[in-house]
Every structure is written in C-alpha cells, then in structure tokens.
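Sample A.
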Amino acid sequence: MLDGAECRRLLGTASVGRIAFTEGAMPTIQPASYALRGDDVVIPTGLGSKMAAGSRGAVLAFEVDEYDLVERTGWSVTVIGPSRLVIDPGQVAALDALGVHPWLPTTTHGYIALHMTVVSGRRITSP
C-alpha cells in the first residue's frame, strides 16, 4: 500500500486517468485528462457531456495507473470524493491556465472538481 503523500506524488506524474460516475443509474468509466489543483483533481469536460451531467454534486471515483508489462510491475492510485461542476467563466479561465484540455474536443467546456477525500494506492510487483 502507498501512503497519501506518495499517492499524491504519483497523481502528479500522469496526465490521463479514468473517471467513474453514474449514468442512468449504471456505473460508467471513461478516460479523462486531468490536472491537480490543491486538494482537487480537475477534469475538463464538455458542458453537455454525460460526464458533466453525472458529476453534478455526486461522489465520484478517479483512477490513475502505470504499468510495465514486461516486468509486470506498476502502481495504481484511486481518488474518491464529492464533485462539483465548475462553469463560472473566471474560474474556468483560471483552470484553463493549468494547460489541461478535454479528452474529446468540445466547443464549450467546464471542469469537474473532484475533492480528494479518500486517496489510496498500491504498488504492483511480480511474484
């Protein structure tokens, strides 16, 4: 198991993860670009997307990992917490300055801010 500080450090080394949310009462997982800002994972998304709709005030999960398929080693970090949709133009502009862009092109975007309430991770090593 990884401690919180190592989990946060590893979160800062990647740029794409997977977000888990609910769509029509069913679990959905999608790839998402992201950045870290304070205690939030910020994920750009189109304002009309299913991801934006599924994140409004919901508790979400976000996972990032890295694997070496030859050595069969790697790590995985999961974040769980409440989310909010950031659509205020000033706040969106401030988050745009982080340089992260939506996974899919969109004409209007905002950000999902997932507060890191639970952060857990583990190293994967071959037997």
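Sample B, a different protein:
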Amino acid sequence: MGHPQPFRIMLTMHIHPGREQEFEQTWLRIGDGVTSHPANLGQWLIRSEDEPSTYYIISDWVDEPQFREFELSPGHLEHRKILHPLRASGSMATGTVLTHLVGAAAE
C-alpha cells in the first residue's frame, strides 16, 4: 500500500572531525529506533562528497502528525541522546513530497 504524499524530514548533521566512522556505525546500530516506528517509511544516510564531516539524513513518514508524535517520544529522545556527542551542529527541514518522477535507469 503506497503513501502518495509522505512527510519528509531532511537533516543536515555536521560531525566532529575524526568521528565520522563512529557516527556511521552508531547511526546504523540504532537506526531501527526510527525505522521500527509504524509510521516510518524509511530513511537514508548520505555523506557529503564536498565536506566529509557533513551528513544528510532523509526520513519519510506517513504524515506530519505521526512524525511529530514520534519526535516527542522517549525512544526518539534516547536516539538523539546517543548521537548528540558525535554532532558538532545540525539543522532540520521538513516538507510534504508532492510528486516523484522516476528516472530512466529505474525502469
């Protein structure tokens, strides 16, 4: 069953230099704390090619209210607490996916 208009979270995380591998391993180890939530559609970890200590995390949700509920949950607060010491700074942008155009290589 598809979700035509998922709510997307786009995080930018700047990791303390020298702790990139630890961050990647920790993110993978605790990722099911996000993806096991019934409203989560999946998430992606992207490392910047231009700034090796910068990561982008994309996370899709069924809708905004369920994401906001998760965002305030004890499980999410614990997830953030584990990652926080590795982070130098970060920011979050949110939005609703309006459409998706499939590229030729995906067909």
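Observation for Sample B: Residues 1-7+50-91 form one domain.
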